[in-house]
Amino acid sequence: MTKAYLMTSLVEKMQSPDQDFRFMGLNDLMNEIKQDQTCFVGDEAVENKVLMQVLALVEDKISEVKNQAVNCLGQLIKIIRQPQMETVVDKLIDFSGGQDEELRDISGLALKTITAELHRMARLLQLLRTLSPQPLTVLAPLLVHPRPVVFVPISQGYLFTDLLATHVFPFLAPNANLEKQRTTVHLIAAVGANGTHQIAPVLAEIVPGVLKAVQRDDDELREGGLQALEALLLRCPTEITPYVAPITQTGIQYIKYDPNYAGDDEDEEMADADDDDVEAELDEYSDDEDTSYKIRRSATKLLAAIVGTRPDLLSSIYKDVSPVLISPLWRPRGNCEAGGLGYLAQGAGPFPFQGSAQPAQVGEDPACDSAGWPVASIAATSKSILAQPPSTSTSTLHLACLSFLVLFFATHSPPTFTPSLPNLTPALLRSLGERHPRVASETFRAGGEWAEAVYEQAVARLTAHDTDAEVRACAEACVGDLWVCATDVVRSRDRREWEAICRAGCEDGGGDHVGLHFPMYLSADGFSSSYTEGVPAALPPALVPQIKPYLSTSDIPLLSQGLSLLALLLELAPTTTFPEIESDLLPDVYRIAHSPLVSGAALDSLLSFCAALVSADNQIATHLVPNLVIAVEKAPKADASPSNVAKAVAQIVKSQQAIAAGTIAQYAKNIKAKTQTVVLSLLILGELGRFMYQEEIRAAASFAAGNIAIGNLPQFLPAIVKIVKSDPKKRLLSLHALKEACVVTHCSQGQLEGVADLLWVPLFENSENSEETTRNVAAACLGKLATTHPSRYLPQLHARVQDPSADARATVVSAIRYTFAETSSSYDELLAPLLVDFLSLMLDEDLTVRRLALSALNSAARTKPHLIREHLPALLPSLYRETIINPDLIRTVQMGPWTHKVDDGLDARKTAYETMYTLLDTCLAKLELPTFLGRVLPGLADDSDEIKVISHMMLFRLSQVAPAAVSQKLDEATPELEKTMKGATVTKDTVKQDLERAAELQRSALRAVAALSKIAGNGASPRFDAFVEELKKNPQWGSEFKELAAQA
């Protein structure tokens, strides 16, 4: 069927005398436009015919048909040609000036629908600017029209000042006409949502007027005023900062607004104690009888806007806001209470208070925690909500309450809420038995201190055949927690939980068999404490095959957990576990042992497994070592990590000392063999030297020398220091040896204290006037030495902060960066007063020093955020300054016939963005999000792909922890995201690597857009919404985008 024939048939359907046919014709036309926006291309006659018919239906007698015609115009306006757009606008203006009141209203709605596309349709905006007279000139007088329904405000910059002076400021006066003041606050809300750059400069004159208008005795005006304040908070967060306090007080005032409630605080306490009265009130109350809930709802959203966009102010406003959000919740107010709990959860989750939150205030009010949370009120309110059985009307409130409790328990220490648990526990236990699946699953997530009852409910749910899948998953997770936290309770229940879980997950239903998903719930501590008297003989043969699928590098955390569980089984039941592992799992272990992906906790688990395996069978060691070496030699170079294998071999030898001499002799012979064998042999010898990297042979030898020196520091270190002083060619390698001895191997403090003085001066002397690589290695050693005697060495580093030599300052700040690698807090009190001086080198005149200072701030934010949180207001401006591209640092380099631009400031800029990403995870509550976002967005347009990727990662993270703030910036982020998704421009000089880099950058942007799409559904950014729709239809990225959106 051709497009022309299809459109003709739709026109005929829209001309039908049957109203249903006309409605369906419009609906089918909208669907066709959504599927193919080129349906009118090349056929002007059909386009005119369809458009005239839709405009004719705007005058239809049936309301449903007229409304559908308006919706259809919203779709048509996107694809028709400019002359047709002028026709549409002219026709609708003619309708709005007619005598038919209903036609005037529907044409006004149609004009509003069309203008809603202004953000994504620049050509329509250009058309409106060519109209004479200007739309704003015509529409502004309607603000004083007695019929508010025709108010359609449109903001254009060059007329906006006159609009404010004539139709906004006069009507914000306290004695202004009530009807006109309502219209004015609605206008402010509309302009605030769409014209931030226009209204921000005049907030000082607008906000006080709106605050006064809210106090007038008119519910509609109050609701509109609160909505206007919310829009201004979201869109102008920086400019409105001076008014946050009075706006907060206004929100607090009206969230309690209830003209039908005459009780006081004392009455509330009595009512809370009388559950029967509450239940009777619930039966009698109906929102249909009272519209004041709209004001409470607007006030709740207003406070939520503050909570969601100003984490830097939370510590000061929570003490005022949280009691108010909680105190009225027991009264029957429908979704307002759920909203209040939801917004409290928004603060308890993304912005948890840190451990150093003003402990002095705890003593002032024992009912509050250190952050000001009214714990007793939370418990009482939650109890009153959960005491009522969930119904269709109250289930949302129950879920909000339970979700809030989950977050509250997760982000606060047990002593905070333990005194309130006796009152709260009975209501939570009743919720465990509820038939509503969401209520039951959320209650399982909140479970904690009531192990016996939770265990019984979990087993009952797992045993029942009709249990909802979500409830079953939560019950299984709860059993896993009980294994860890309540092993005595579990041990006394005759393994009933195993039988219940295996009944659904295994064929034979045996109590020692588990489903594939369950072994990873087990904690080593919980498992070992539960089987102190011996593991059942049938358990290892059943459990080991279930762990086999997890011995893969596709999921490193599960690999780590699986190896830990195998090591534990070898320790508890070596006789029955070892044969299963030897026959079935060793090939998998050889394969993963040399993988570069195995590091950190996974590598520690691998080493623990090797030690446990050798301890279980003394003969296996002589087979493990050569098989591990053979596996790494056969592996592709990109997939081989000789250092991992060396560590595993050393762990095996350490656990089986009898093979040490043979192993050392074997790999000492290999030093003269081919290169790969030499590197591996030196690494193994270096690892073995720790108890009686490495692509280059000399680096491996340096590694070995440093590790061997640990055995006798006073004897070997002076020889290495002598090379540092006397041989410039070997200085870097000898410094690497010192680093291995002092830093990497984590020598004891006692060992290093004895040689610190021997090393300190030579390290400093030979780091100055050296290349950066040498200086960094020396600084790592200095940082480690500083932690051995901080009261002695930290002041010496501090004294060199103002050293005239830029190399000396660089060494100092690098050394401080390495002190943060020591997680101990023993020297925090000494470091804290000096830290700001060290980090002030971000303002240094030398670019290298600035970059190293940024790196130090990044390390501090990652490992010791408590030391810098209070200093961030002074440090952040320097950090943000380094994210700005400095043209003075960009130089042009001639490379044959080509010229190439080199940005010397790129490394510092990249470090600054990495630091911002770290701060987002560890110091979110101290960040002023509008300013922070103001530096994230330019990163999307940076010339460096790496900075773009970091910016994408920050947007992804912000969509999770600060959705309200980032949703207001989607319009600004969309152009650069669109540009990235277009990919690289292919020219004759484009190579395959360019296309691969562009594809990786596109995937990075796609992940960010998928996450942002989850928070953009409220129409905050029509342009972003259109971008998302285009991506969904994109043949290259559509399916991947949908997968990422489902996972976000």
UniProtKB/TrEMBL annotation:
Domain TATA-binding protein interacting (TIP20) span(s) in chain numbering: 867-1032
Classification via InterPro entries: ARM-like, ARM-type_fold, CAND1/CAND2, TATA-bd_TIP120
Keywords: Repeat, Ubl conjugation pathway
One GO process term, biological-process aspect: SCF complex assembly
Domain of life the protein comes from: Eukaryota
Keyword Nucleotidyltransferase listed: no
Pfam family, any one: TIP120
Family note: Belongs to the CAND family.
Name of the protein in its database record: Cullin-associated nedd8-dissociated protein 1
Species of origin: Favolaschia claudopus
